[in-house]
Design goal:
By secondary structure, this protein is mostly helical. The protein is built from 15 helices and no strands. It is a multi-pass membrane protein.
Amino acid sequence: MPENFDTNTIRMLCFAGIFFAMALLEIALPKRDLSIERRGRWPTNWAFVILDSILVRLVFPIGGVGLAYLAAREGWGLFNLVEVPVWIAGIVAFLVLDFIVWLQHWAAHKVPVLWRIHRVHHADGDMDVTTALRFHPVEILLSFVWKGLFIVALGAPVEAVLVFEIVLNGAAMFNHANVALPRWLDAALRLIVVTPDMHRVHHSARMIETDSNYGFNLSIWDRVFATYTDQPEGGHDGMQIGLSEETSKQARRFSWSLLFPLKNDPARR
């Protein structure tokens, strides 16, 4: 891939295309009636996107693809030291990066200090495509450092990192979308990838369900590590999403959500 290739433009076009496609599908094929109107949630969720994007640009202007370029130029990482066909290196890098994102998500629920930050994502009182974008900036920065370490350690091919970032972003918007897939299609897809119905279970207010289905892209990790839950106990229409009704009301405010990690953890459901 040439160094002057505009990866940011490619990523932004993919992001916009997938977002609008999911937003339109939510209108055409909604899974649930939203308990909170979009105007009550979208401004805060988008405020997080804007703030996160600005901070990442300021703190890590090189980005994941830039790190891969740097590692290749300097000869850092496994695949820059050992000769392996680029397609094999790409597949291995993609799988490893997908797994470490699963592992990070698992840790965000198990490590108290990380949960304090991650619960901002779960405080959303309903779930749609914008929930995929609602992350505290501290979590976004930590995530970049975590993925960056593996990009460099692997010497991940630039193309693999670009594809991974596009797929991860798109998969998150897909599986957070309030979209009703036919049951046969959902069943077939979730053998490989995380579907909206599968990930919605993870946003349940019931702790036993929240602590499952950690995947964002490939569904295999939850099956391998026995953290897979097929369906919510109360059904998708009856399940409560979020942390609690009171938290969900306050989480509509951006300032409250931004300071939420500093507040005492409400006994985890």
